[in-house]
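To the team - 2-acetamido-2-deoxy-beta-D-glucopyranose complex, inputs and output below.
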Amino acid sequence: MSRVKFALLLLFTTSLAEEQDGKIACNSITPKTVVLRVTKGTSDYIDYYGILASFGTDVGGKPGNPITLAAAKPPLACSPVEKVEGGSIVAHRGNCTFLQKDIEVQGAGGEQLIVVNTDEDVFTPSCSDDEPITAKVTLPLPAVIMVSNSTGWKILEAAAEHGTVDVFAPVNPRFDGSLLLMWLVAVATVAGGAFWGAYDTKQLIRRSTDTQENCEMAPAEDFLDVVHINETAAALFVVVASTMLLLLFVFMSKYTDYLILVHPEALSS
Ligand SMILES: *[C@@H]1O[C@H](CO)[C@@H](O)[C@H](O)[C@H]1NC(C)=O
Ligand SMILES: *[C@@H]1O[C@H](CO)[C@@H](O)[C@H](O)[C@H]1NC(C)=O
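Output:
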């Protein structure tokens, strides 16, 4: 039980460490994959994928808040950026920290910063707690999203045509049918193994006692790998094993998205 509590605690401490005392909390946001729903002109939207930074504003779980795209001027956004009215500012990675770019974007009136990576990878943009802040900032800072180079260039094309972007993090449902399925598979495997094992053992014992009566062979247990466990231990084993599987599944799922999205644009066209 305490193991479960510990695991849950681990899961929530990151999201509890919100921005405190007007200081920028560099690790206040759980890294997650976000969808960037981009429209340009009157055509249909295209979904791209990116990674939300561990600082700045979190994004919602549902689409419905499209904002205008604008390319940052200067493109690296390391010095004051040309004013925009709200909207999402697209800047290139490099020459200064993500935090500085985000501060410049806020200074320009932007609501959001999309960072175009220099290559096809994506990772979680973060900041360092001891980074000196020279500008005046209002918390929370704009949301920061990193996209790969090729995705970034497509988004910049949309920005050139006054397109919009709607960023959201699709939420995993609290209860997932596959959890139940996994649990059933785990229990069925253990139970099936136990019954099969017991059946085998019974057969062997029966055969060996038959032989014993006729030919006086060694008692059955001498040549069987018999493990004596009682019912409580067996039940406990099933519970512990299924709990471990569940935990593995729950914890993996958060990071598997992240791992398989190394080349996210492969999923979007
Ligand atoms: C990037 O930084 C270097 C050195 O700090 C500077 O020489 C260069 O002009 C900067 N590039 C841009 C595009 O601002
Ligand atoms: C980034 O993408 C653009 C447009 O697809 C391409 O011209 C450029 O060479 C790419 N840069 C890198 C570093 O891959």
